[in-house]
Design a protein that fits this description.
The complex is a heterotrimer, with two copies of chain A (193 residues) and one copy of chain B (303 residues).
Chain A (H helix, E strand, L loop, with lengths): L11 H11 L6 H8 L3 H15 L10 E6 L2 E6 L4 H11 L6 H13 L2 E2 H8 L4 H9 L3 E6 L6 E5 L1 H7 L11 H4 L13
Antiparallel strand pairs in A: 1-2, 3-5, 4-5
Helix pairs in contact in A: 1-3, 2-3, 5-7
Chain B lengths: L47 E3 L4 E3 H9 L10 H14 L2 H26 L8 H38 L10 H4 L11 H12 L19 H15 L1 E3 H4 L6 H16 L3 E5 L6 E5 L6 H6 L7
Antiparallel strand pairs in B: 1-2, 3-5, 4-5
Classes of the chains: A alpha+beta (193), B mainly alpha (303).
Keywords (chains A, C): Cell cycle, Cell division, Chromosome partition, Cytoplasm
Pfam families (chains A, C): SMC_ScpB (PF04079)
Protein name (chains A, C): SMC-Scp complex subunit ScpB
């Protein structure tokens, strides 16, 4: 047990690990320093400690991930040695055909864009989070902004979809207007109880 | 107010001390029918009753009754109801409707229990008395079941709140892995795609197997509701007398009245009656109304 | 490059760390076993090793992250102690809270599943249609079949609910069974009189 220093705040390295674990993009030393309220030089030293630690140079085992400096910031990456395993893993997660659920969600986004996941979910009456992730990963939809009121991310389709459909612009999508003129307030579910 | 992690709930000890009319902090886990619908845990708010034998939150009253520490026959239900109605006046809109419907369940159960409690009981000799007691047990069971789920929902709320604060690693897939994903096989034509959009955006029809052939209703409440809806949507405001003008069959008359109640329950109409047995005025108030609403209406009567 | 130890395969724990690092949802033992081509028992043991390791029980320092079993799978989380710091950092917008009515309906479905809307309504004694749609759109419940007799849609809860509750299986729900034996079973009150 190494609980001997637990009376004080957790070590800087531990706090940085927590921040790095959930960060989606490289973090500059200044950003990290702000996040954990510590001076930059201390953060720099802690980052170096972690880099060595993950590389197995601090007595512990080498980790399956590494802390790398990329584009002016630090981020956790899966270690490159495991790329073969990871590529297989990603492939099994992403089959070459879109599921029916994904296609339907894509169709809703195409006609209703810009649209939030919540709005799509209420139209389809199922949760679409993972399906939207798939579409994002496939580059068929993209984030196009945020709802001014709710702050929800709004999605739209990309040129890649147009290419797949063989059209030049969204205007060429067949009209299905009667359905689109329907009750515009998909927020019936916001207040729904 | 995050419940302790150990998974055990005992609704009989949920809200404060059970010492009769003693002090109650009113911040128990379940606020009974009281808590504001949106706020989730409305501390100390909610419906309180002030009776001769009891003064405190409604939920505690239920607890005491269900624990047999307060005799249901000593509770004036009409007084409880009066207080509830004045409590409702202070609420607004949807909160009011939801609370009212929940109160009705509990009040109806209490009323049944009270009837069972007031009837002479005597020795457990004849089958009738046994049946009476069993009926009372059923009512207790119903009440407790309802409250158990209310209690459980508090646990759900607490856990969800706690989990909201947790942070899992969810990062975008690195470009180098994204690029290794096999090429997408796209087979849909433009028209297929549009057809799919239509399919995806068509409101789902709820599969419904009619039981009409089993209990053929002489008059359909749903059909009568459709009549009432079209009349009210055209006129806006009508008296009930006008709504049933020309109806001669008692069955249609009753069904039309029941459909009015159902429509009120769905918050599609409002009504006012200035004096008991006076003219009943119906008003169309629904912001949104669709065939789907109508299809679901009166489903209780199908059974 | 440190290719000197590349003759042997990297330890299972290291491979799992790499996979966990790029996963964006809880991974079951089977999924992980498939990804790293190892038997499930070995994966289970490796996962346990990592859990202890991150908790500082394996000689090394406690980590700023932890490996949690949630919703039927394993997932990396920032350690709970740091959640306050992280909330400031990520400024995530929590999804809007469920209404009391939705929570109660959810509780009934969780305990009574598979259950039809009609059955839920008879317990809650109010119309639950719109609430069920909200729960469907949130991905917390899903259609699990139809009643053989009535054809009514039956609903059950999803793994996403487990994740939202931070539990791993429905067995971890609090026990309220004594109160739920349907009204057919009046024995439960034998002792109550």
């Amino acid at each position: 047990m190494t609980d001997d220093v637990m009376d004080a705040a957790p070590p800087l390295t531990e706090q940085l690990e927590a921040v790095l674990m959930i960060a989606d993009e490289p973090l500059s030393l200044v950003t990290m320093a702000t996040a954990v309220s510590a001076p930059v030089p201390a953060v720099r030293q802690a980052v170096e400690t972690l880099v060595d630690d993950y590389d197995g140079k601090a007595g512990g085992p080498r980790r399956g991930f590494e802390l790398r400096e990329v584009g002016g910031g630090w981020r956790l990456y899966a270690r490159a040695e495991h790329d073969a395993v990871l590529t297989d893993f990603v492939n099994t997660q992403a089959p070459s055909r879109l599921s029916q659920a994904a296609l339907e969600t894509l169709a809703v986004i195409a006609y209703k864009q810009p649209v939030s996941r919540g709005q799509v979910a209420s139209i389809r009456a199922v949760n679409v989070d993972s399906v939207v992730r798939t579409l994002l990963a496939r580059g068929l939809v993209t984030e196009v902004g945020t709802d001014a009121e709710t702050g929800a991310i709004l999605y739209g389709t990309t040129d890649a979809l147009l290419v797949n459909l063989g059209i030049n612009s969204l205007d060429e999508l067949p009209h299905i207007s009667p359905l689109l003129d329907g009750p515009d307030d998909t927020d019936i579910f916001e207040g729904a109880r | 107010m995050v419940p302790s992690p150990e998974p055990e709930l005992d609704p009989s000890t949920s809200s404060g001390t059970a010492d009769g009319t003693g002090t109650v902090d009113g911040s128990g886990t379940a606020d009974g029918t009281g808590a504001g619908e949106r706020s989730g845990t409305g501390e100390g708010e909610g419906f309180r009753v002030s009776l001769g034998v009891f003064d405190g939150p409604f939920d505690l009253l239920l607890t005491l009754i269900s624990k047999h520490e307060l005799d249901i026959t000593e509770v004036s239900l009409s007084k409880v109801t009066d207080e509830f109605i004045s409590y409702l006046r202070a609420l607004e809109g949807a909160d009011e409707l939801d609370e009212a419907s929940e109160f009705l369940v509990v009040a109806a159960t209490l009323l049944d229990m009270k009837v069972a409690g007031l009837l002479p009981q005597g020795e457990l000799v004849d089958a009738e008395s046994v049946a009476l007691l069993e009926a009372r047990d059923l009512l207790f069971a119903r009440l407790l079941q309802y409250r158990a789920f209310k209690e459980a929902s508090t646990w759900f709320a607490g856990r969800m709140q706690a989990e909201d604060r947790r942070h899992a690693r969810t990062v975008r897939l690195d470009a180098k892995y994204r690029n290794t994903v096999p090429e997408l096989v796209w087979t849909l034509s433009l028209d297929d795609f549009a057809a799919l959009a239509v399919l995806a955006m068509t409101p789902k029809e709820i599969p419904h197997v009619g039981l009409d052939h089993l209990h053929a209703p002489l008059v359909s409440i749903r059909e009568q509701a459709a009549v009432v809806v079209s009349m009210l949507r055209t006129a806006g405001t009508l008296s009930f007398r006008q709504v049933v003008a020309g109806v001669s069959q008692p069955g249609v008359f009753v069904a039309r009245f029941l459909s009015v109640l159902e429509l009120y329950r769905h918050a599609a109409i409002g009504f006012e009656q200035l004096e008991p047995l006076g003219e009943l005025t119906l008003r169309w108030t629904a912001d949104r109304w669709s065939e789907e609403n109508l299809a679901a209406l009166g489903a209780d009567y199908d059974r």
